[in-house]
Amino acid sequence: MDTSDFFLSLFNNAQNNCILIMNTEGDILEVNRAFSEEFGYLNDEIKGKNFSILFTAHDQKAGKPVAELQRVKSTGVATDNNYMVNKDGTLTWVSGESIFVNRHNEQDYIIKIFQNIHTQKQLEHFLIESSEFFENIIESIKGAAVLVLDSMMRILKVNTAFIKMFELDTPPQEGNRLTDLNHSFWMNDDMKKEIRNVIVTNTSVKGKKFELTTRSGQQKEVALYTKIMHEEPTLERKILVVIKELPS
User: Which domains, and CATH codes, for the chain?
Assistant: First the structure.
C-alpha cells in the first residue's frame, strides 16, 4: 500500500478532520479543505503563518503553542483539548493530536489533526450548570426534607431541612447507602418499603402519610413524595424523595 497516496486521500477528502501540515517551528505549510470550511481561512491566506494565531490570547500568553511544539518534538505526539480562534474571531472547542513526522534526510514536519467538539463542550457546561442549579434549588427548600438517591440507594444529596427534621448530628456522607443510616427516617418499615418499591417498580409515591418518632422521642406525621428523575434507559436513574411534616 502506498502510504503517501493514503495520506493524500485523507488530507483532501476528510470532512470532519481538520488537518494542518507545519514545519517544526509551527509555521503552517498547508491546510485541508475541512479546516478552511471550519475556520474560514483559505490555504493561501494562512500558509506561512505560525499556528499560534489559532490559539486564544490567553493560551498564547500561557505558552500553550510553544509547549505543544516541544511536546510533539520530544515525544513524537501531543494531544490537546482547547479553544481555537476562527478567522472571524469566534471560538471553537477542538480535540486533536499533533504527530511528528521524521523524513530522515529530508525536512521534518508536524501534522496536526483535530475535530470540532464544540457542541459536546457546550453540553458539558450545560450539565454542570444544571447540576449546580438543581443542588441550589434543593438546598433552598426550607419547608420539606429532600433526599436524592441513585438506583443503588446511595445518597447523592440531602438538604439542611432533612438534617434538622431527623435530628442528625452530621449530614449523611455522599455515596453512603441509605440502609446504613441508623435513625427514625429509615427505621420506619412502611416508609422503607415504599422507597424500595420506587426503585424496583419505577412507581411514584404521592403524599402517603407516615408516623415517625424522632431521636428525641417526638412524634411527627409526615407525607412522603417520591419521583424517578431519569426514566431513559441510557441515563442513570435518580430518585427524588421529599418528606413534608404535616401540622399536628
Answer: 3-121 (3.30.450.20), 140-245 (3.30.450.20)
Whole-angstrom distance, CA of residue 67 vs CA of residue 240: 47
Residue 216: pLDDT over 60: yes
Q: Identify which of 52, 2, 42, 51 has the alpha carbon closest to the alpha carbon of residue 22.
A: 51
Nearest residue to 180 (alpha-carbon basis) of 155, 203, 159, 156: 155
What pLDDT, in 10s, does the model give residues 144-171?
Answer: 888 888 878 888 888 888 888 878 777 7
The band of 232, judged by pLDDT with boundaries at 50, 70 and 90, is: very low
Count CB-CB contacts under 10 A for residue 241: 22
pTM metric for this prediction: 0.49
Residue 175 zone, left/alpha/beta (φ > 0; ψ -120 to 50; rest):
left
Contacts of 49 (CB under 8 A, 6+ apart): 27, 28
Whether the Cβ atoms of residue 241 and residue 147 lie closer than 8 Å to each other: yes
